[in-house]
Amino acid sequence: MCKARFLLIAAFGTVLLTTGYFGAPAQQKPREPRDRPPTRGGAGPAEAIPNRDTSIPTGQGQEIVIGFPTNDVTRTAWKVKWTTANGSGLIIQGAWFKKHPNEPWVQILGDARLSEMLVPYHSGSPRFWDVSYNFSLMHLTRDDAGAYGRLIGNPPVVCQEIRDRGLAWMDGTKGSRRGQTLVLWAALNAANYRYVVEYGFQDDGTIAFRVGSTGRNYSSREFEGHMHNALWRIDINLDGPAHNSAYIMEHIETPEGNGTAKTVHRPFNQGREGFEDWDAYKFTMVNIRHEKRKNIRGMPLSYDVMALRMGNARHYGPQEECTLHDFWVTKNRPGEMYYQKLPKYIERGESVIDTDIVLWLSTPGHHEPRSEDGAMQKNNSFVGATPVMWCGFDLKPRNWWDRSPLYP
Fold first, then answer.
1. Which end of the chain is more exposed for a tag (fewer CB within 10 A), N or C?
2. How far apart (Å, rounded) are the C-alpha atoms in residues 400 and 405?
3. What is the maximal distance between C-alpha atoms in the chain?
4. Alpha-carbon distance 89 to 186, whole Å?
5. What string of DSSP letters covers 24-66?
């Protein structure tokens, strides 16, 4: 890498640590620059839903409306507003779902984004907060998009795909049905790393959040273990921002129960702003529910947070208290966008029952370098790309439907 480019990265990195996207936390200290390899070349029920998407510019981003299945009579539909920004990459500005063409749009998401990406190395240094570096997005190519992807933007930085998601269900009378997903993804050009930020909007109302870490191992630390902590800020707006509540569901089974078990439903942190932790023995799930709307069975409309976890990350460096817990919930207040400030945000202890709330959660991955990550050359240069490591979670409907989704 040329000296001028290295100095440019170093200079901008120091500035961005104190400003950042929307103004990064001022107390952050400068961190060492990273080597950068060369970059590669509200509608009503009567609204008709297209089988193919329509993309309409909306400011910096776009709005996509698409009906499922894409190759048959429409059964369900998504309307998604998105934009891009240096740092967080691909941001969802709002998402609405139709569970039938004659049903109205119902909001599911407000602002949803990757709030931060913490990468601490085992030796204690470096400890990167990669979103605060304000990295730009990769310019994508047809090779990146594949045979069925659609590149969006000028230059193209977002890829839109319709993917077969496998079996949606199978039974003994109606056979089976395969599902589809609208996927939007972009990649952050994070120096030696590439972070693929991906959102999947399934035909059954599920939303999949993923971050894929790939690229080239950090120069001079090619074989040192480290973590990739994807830290999310999700404004879940079920049927709008009002009347949303956070709960915890836990599976409880003990030796004293002699084979019996139970599921406990309780308010998140006793109904106040705060944190909860994921317990593998309890299958801990956060449930966001609407306190007014119910389905035909009288059950509250809600979404479950289905975590896809390798484990629980706990880090003890400066300003890393936000990693000491897995789930946080706050009341939605203007300007509260930074994962590092969560211990400060929860100090008010406001109610998270029947109000406008924000879910914050970590989806950590542990990277212990492998031979498959690349090869050290005779000139002591490291060549190769580490395969993508995916971390994330799903938002899955609970009682949103009155029956099995997409069943005949």
1. C
2. 9
3. 69
4. 7
5. --TTPPP------PPPP----TT----SS-EEEEETTEEEEEE
What burial class does residue 238 get, using C-beta atoms within 10 Å of its C-beta: 0-12 exposed, 13-18 middle, 19+ buried? buried
Beta carbons of 91 and 106 less than 8 angstroms apart: no
Q: Where are the alpha helices (DSSP H) in 125-281?
A: 142-145
Distance from chain centroid for Cα 192: 22
* Amino acid code (one letter) for 37: P
Q: What is the percentage of the chain residues whose pLDDT exceeds 90?
A: 80
Output the CA–CA distances (angstroms, integers) from residue 227 to 128, 278, 367, in the order listed: 10, 18, 6
Continuous segment of H or E residues that includes residue 328? strand 327-331
- Residues 80-131 pLDDT 10s: 999 999 999 999 999 999 999 999 999 999 999 999 999 999 999 999 999 9
Phi, psi of 271, deg, nearest 5: 85, 10
Please say whether the beta carbons of 293 and 299 come within 8 A.
Answer: no
Whether residue 363 contacts residue 307, with contact meaning beta carbons closer than 8 Å, is answered with yes
Domains and CATH numbers, the chain: 3-38+64-398 (2.70.98.20)
Pair 134, 329: CB distance under 8 Å: no
The dihedrals phi and psi of 130, each to the nearest 5 degrees, come to -70, -30
The residues, ordered by sequence, that sit 6+ positions from 186 with a Cβ below 8 Å of its Cβ are 84, 89, 90, 137, 138, 140, 157, 158, 159, 196, 197
Rounded Cα distance between 96 and 106, Å, is 5
Find out whether 87 and 20 touch, Cβ atoms under 8 Å: yes
CA dihedral sign, ordered 242, 326, 287, 79:
positive
Task: Report the relative pairing of strands 106-120 and 274-276 from DSSP bridges.
Answer: unpaired
